[in-house]
Amino acid sequence: MVAVPLASACQNAPQVLAIAPARQAQQVPSNLEVTIRFDHDMDQASVAARFQVVPRTTGNLLWDSPRQLRFQHQPFLPDTDYRVSLEAGYRDSAGNV
Question: Are 81 and 73 in contact (CB under 8 A)?
């Protein structure tokens, strides 16, 4: 039998709970902010380093809470597809990846 401390067994990777606009959304207002909500308090620097918008656009990442960010940006160009991504490797405030 192997004993595992309860604190270690309960640690898990942070998960994205909600994204707005929704994945594959179309005809989104050009000035609508992008929001991402997580299930853990996040290491903001690790999230910011992995957040990307293509094509690149000017904007700021703002944290409404330790679990929710929003990307405030210049209006997106009309008739242009944008992709927002969060690359793997972001951490929560406890260091879980």
Answer: no
Structure confidence at residue 82 (pLDDT): 94
CA angle (91, 93, 96) in 5-degree steps: 45
Whether residue 21 has a cis bond before it, omega within 30° of 0: yes
Rounded distance between C-alpha atoms, residue 24 and residue 82, angstroms = 10
Per the DSSP assignment, residues forming a β-bridge with 85 are: 52
Q: What pTM, to 2 d.p., does this model score?
A: 0.85
Share the mean pLDDT of the chain: 91
Q: Which residues fall within 8 angstroms of residue 1, CB to CB, at 6 or more apart? A: none
Residues 6+ positions from 30 with CB-CB distance below 8 Å:
75, 76, 77, 78
pLDDT digits (tens, 9 = 90+) for 38-51: 999 999 999 999 99
Q: How many CA atoms lie within 13 A of 87 on its CB side?
A: 10
